[in-house]
Amino acid sequence: MFFASDNWAGAHSAINDRLSKESTRFAAAYGNSELDKSVEERFNEIFEREVSVYFVSTGTAANSLSLASIARVGGVVFAHSEAHVIEDECGAPDFFSGMRMVGVEGAGGKIDPARLKARIAGFPQDALHHGRAAAVTMTQATETGTIYSLNEIEAIVRIAKDNDLPVHMDGARFANALVALGATPAEMTWKRGVDVLSFGGTKNGCWCAEAIVFFNPELAKEFAYIRKRSAQLFSKTRFISAQFEAYLQDDLWLDLAGHANAMATRLRAGIGALNSARLAWETTSNEVFAVLSKASADAAKEKGSAFYDWPVPLTMPDLVAEDEVLIRLVTSFATTQEDVDQFLSICAAA
Amino acid sequence: MFFASDNWAGAHSAINDRLSKESTRFAAAYGNSELDKSVEERFNEIFEREVSVYFVSTGTAANSLSLASIARVGGVVFAHSEAHVIEDECGAPDFFSGMRMVGVEGAGGKIDPARLKARIAGFPQDALHHGRAAAVTMTQATETGTIYSLNEIEAIVRIAKDNDLPVHMDGARFANALVALGATPAEMTWKRGVDVLSFGGTKNGCWCAEAIVFFNPELAKEFAYIRKRSAQLFSKTRFISAQFEAYLQDDLWLDLAGHANAMATRLRAGIGALNSARLAWETTSNEVFAVLSKASADAAKEKGSAFYDWPVPLTMPDLVAEDEVLIRLVTSFATTQEDVDQFLSICAAA
Amino acid sequence: MFFASDNWAGAHSAINDRLSKESTRFAAAYGNSELDKSVEERFNEIFEREVSVYFVSTGTAANSLSLASIARVGGVVFAHSEAHVIEDECGAPDFFSGMRMVGVEGAGGKIDPARLKARIAGFPQDALHHGRAAAVTMTQATETGTIYSLNEIEAIVRIAKDNDLPVHMDGARFANALVALGATPAEMTWKRGVDVLSFGGTKNGCWCAEAIVFFNPELAKEFAYIRKRSAQLFSKTRFISAQFEAYLQDDLWLDLAGHANAMATRLRAGIGALNSARLAWETTSNEVFAVLSKASADAAKEKGSAFYDWPVPLTMPDLVAEDEVLIRLVTSFATTQEDVDQFLSICAAA
Amino acid sequence: MFFASDNWAGAHSAINDRLSKESTRFAAAYGNSELDKSVEERFNEIFEREVSVYFVSTGTAANSLSLASIARVGGVVFAHSEAHVIEDECGAPDFFSGMRMVGVEGAGGKIDPARLKARIAGFPQDALHHGRAAAVTMTQATETGTIYSLNEIEAIVRIAKDNDLPVHMDGARFANALVALGATPAEMTWKRGVDVLSFGGTKNGCWCAEAIVFFNPELAKEFAYIRKRSAQLFSKTRFISAQFEAYLQDDLWLDLAGHANAMATRLRAGIGALNSARLAWETTSNEVFAVLSKASADAAKEKGSAFYDWPVPLTMPDLVAEDEVLIRLVTSFATTQEDVDQFLSICAAA
């Protein structure tokens, strides 16, 4: 019953097998092996166009270096006020890009288009002292388990483009969002105008596989230097490639995300049926936010469940009663129906 | 016959098996699992004292963040003029530490103590405009295949300490040096006064396992923030730990390095016996630098050998005749006697 | 009728005369002349204790380098959400300090203590991913013309100290605040617990005289290097010293600020008596924010008045009617009664 | 007898008078006054073409921000190994540009073209690990008192351009070099291919007047943001403009430099005629390097001369006998014949 985070899961056996196979070979280092090249090709297929792909070690690196690729001196980046780049990366995006992250509010973890527009307007192009608008970054799926619809993505992108701003998508849970929407990778990104994507594999069955995917080749031009200077060029890069090869083969990645999402749906349904618990808000990815009686939460923890208590959003002060607690539950490719059902029955019994 | 670099090898089967085993489990992320803790303990045993250990993704990260931990504004770091931190990391050490690397010459890839002393003297403590001496970094084994003796390490450290400078050791090939010297990890580091170590596992049988080991706890105090801000905190850290667990078990790491060194010795002996080749200079680790007739080098490449031509050192202008070429050969845990012998016989036949 | 900003004024004649006198002499460069030393002593007297004083070229530099002196990796600095360090310095504080500025709301341009406390609590000391609380900076007088009382300063500082955070004061209009409060420099700073101060002279009669004053000697220890590395060490530093010598002599600086404040008071009184204008909010320094009929504002501009239209605060959406405009008027040592009265009569006539 | 540096002199009376006049006026801040605009025009005339001019506070800022304007990630900048950007700016050029300074040797303080070519060749465009060649910077007049001829400038620039590298000129003593060569500003800069110039006024009669002059408009495009973010935008910029207006009027700047150079010539001639002293090497600007008997040097200091002892260049180990000392003498606009003659007679008498 490990619902603390999808990064508590191990690695999928197919990915692990591919890694094992790779371990017995010699091959060129620093991304120059045939495997590296073929996986790059695979990304072209997945996205139905030529893309530039660069592997890095962590999601924080993927976001930070993506933003570094579009860095402008004095630039500000607009992100949802609860975005990972603001709340959870210890300032790495600012450090690598030299830019400031500016929070934009919005319900359900999604940037509100009207507020984004107003925020950007506060940085007119000649306002030297303020700094200047330089990029918009959006998270798909969001930090709070919701998902931008294709139209919602398009609305955000259109505002960015009207202001000549490139758009970055933080796809740490890209596959979960994709499956939930039933969209193609192309539809959810460059066909809507996204310029650069953090494509996460770690949370969805790899052990360490994060890629930056450039749809805008202009942004990729200097990127080899940015990555190397940022200490993110693996010597044995092909071990990342090997993970991605297995991950992207025969729709494994979509199956894994589909499973995680289904487990979350099962959790949501179960919680909705409980007396001692309720959903805090609607989610559609592999994250579930629930209000539990403290008794249920304590019982679940005692019996071996792992999950995090979550801070009550400032905008929802009445969400949680005194004898209740807000928790986050994250499912993964490795979550089983038994895990879910056991957790629910513990809660029900408490 | 892959002698291009030790990072062309795959991963050792014991390390791979340990990874596979790890892949089926859930565990806490970000270095908080029991495995992470137990491997940290293992480092204490290996170094015969309490140390602070932090994993990072690349050797460049290990060096750059080590130096960031001892950063001083306006600081300069003294390194051999051919050191990896100067020649091969695209400025990452400067970027992360905010300091400048100052090259110190020295024969055989090793810092010359007298020159180091003179160089440091050029940065007296009150010389605001010059900047100030802040650290010494030495590479063990060196970039040119040589190894500092324990006395030579001590001589460098003593000069550093006389000037209140902390000492960093770049141990990308730490195990190779250790085995060649027949010393213990403690003897080659903190017992000589080294403060912080880049402890490399990737070149010696892991697929991605680099650690920063602090002997000076003062330097480690802020390091958790330095690493996270530098985008080097893996979520599934335990997969690094798993590699190190197998690597450090039953002296595997020393056996692997011993094998690589032995293969280099075999190469050296074979080359010494050839008419069409000779050693460029003496080496004692797993790197061999040889002058080959172009005919031999071409034949070797044609028949499937991989190695790099090497630039002729400015200090050895007469090393290579017109119909010759300087090459670097690197052996690894995965190099076989057959590889070596086949390479030698091709050269002999050319 | 130049009310655009106090930095539109020239330099006071006494300061100019002192500069002229200095221009005929030779003296040691880089802050080593006797004049430099004696002005440093003068700061000790002004603040009734030993302080460390460093001159820099701009207010932005004073703030940015003050924060650089207390930089922590992954650190966040709490400032009022409309503070100069957030809104008007193009990211320089982030660039020089490597830290992020986090806005705290509060009425009247002043940090709200309860919100500050809540904000700091969001960065507990072990919350690696969030970053960590590192400093509080407050502006005295504020960007909106208000002034923290001594008790209000103390309240903010106490919260900072309870969290082990150093406190910086942006005193670009330090003298205006001091005179308005009738306090001593010591009372408004270190006696309340302020650790480092941006002490501005430029807006109050100097042409370029900004100092960083350290009350906490620990923060000053590395500062000579920070300043030099930041390209802020003047060779002919004594020309800054000369300005400060005249500025601080015989209370000139307090007289100049007193005059500017008095002119603002006269403006406020006059505007309060007009039909076509009203004060937008209460101010007590040399800044006045007024709502004017567009007719008045246009007439004033046409007849040679210089001032800036000001964005209506988001928190005061009903402040300004459709045929009105919010403006900022700033007085200085060089503002005359005639300027004020002429402006008022133009508005009255419109 | 102040020969310590040209920055020990005060400010020329014409420049001071212009400043005084400016002090009584109001004018727009941040470079938007009419005076600012007219001085920008004046630079166009001086350089016989349209240029972009930006004022900054120090020579270190001028160099550092010039290099920041041509910054490339992973970039290296080639400079003479004794250049100010390497030896005397505490790492500021590296800090602001994010690039590394790579020293190139050369006799007489001038970059040796052949060595420059070889050094650049060490950074081929695809050599990710090394970093990449990004700029060449040359100092005119050099740190050792010599001057590049127009042909020598052209030779350096041609090598840079053959490698697609922009060229920066550090002109802290631009006027001294110009007068010594009898060239025009255009001939010594953009007509030879220089892209950006640090144009120094401080050492030649201003009290604080440093400009960055862009001949390549592409480099200037982002510069307003670079300067502001670097805390180098003066609010009362017009006080810099006022200095430059007087400086550039009626050839004052050339007259002042001509005087300083003439005083240096007088010094050189006098020293050449002494028994107790000799020139260390030939110089042609306002710097003189001399070997004095210690007795002479001591006598001169005792009787009020100010000058610096200078480290003996490593390439000239036999330059100075045991009872001798190498000193640097710098003349300025404010040096008088009497100063020179008195110094010489003290040396002669010792």
Q: How do the helices and strands line up, and which of them pair or pack?
A:
Four copies of one chain form a homotetramer.
Chain A: H1 13-22, H2 34-47, E1 52-56, H3 59-69, E2 75-80, H4 84-87, H5 92-97, E3 100-104, H6 113-121, E4 132-139, H7 150-162, E5 167-171, H8 174-181, H9 185-188, E6 196-200, E7 210-214, H10 217-220, H11 223-229, H12 238-248, H13 252-272, E8 277-279, E9 287-293, H14 294-302, E10 308-309, E11 324-330, H15 337-349
Parallel strand pairs in A: 2-3, 2-4, 4-5, 5-6
Antiparallel strand pairs in A: 1-7, 6-7, 8-9, 9-11, 10-11
Helix pairs in contact in A: 1-12, 2-12, 8-13, 13-15, 14-15
What does it look like?
Four copies of one chain form a homotetramer. Helices cover 41% and strands 17% of the residues of chain A. The mean pLDDT of chain A is 96. In chain A, strands 1-7-6-5-4-2-3 form a seven-stranded mixed beta sheet, with helices on both faces. A four-stranded antiparallel beta sheet of chain A has the order 8-9-11-10. Chain A has 350 residues and is an alpha/beta fold. The first copy, chain A, has 15 helices and eleven strands.
Short summary:
The structure is a homotetramer of 350-residue chains. Chain A is α/β, with parallel strands linked by helices.
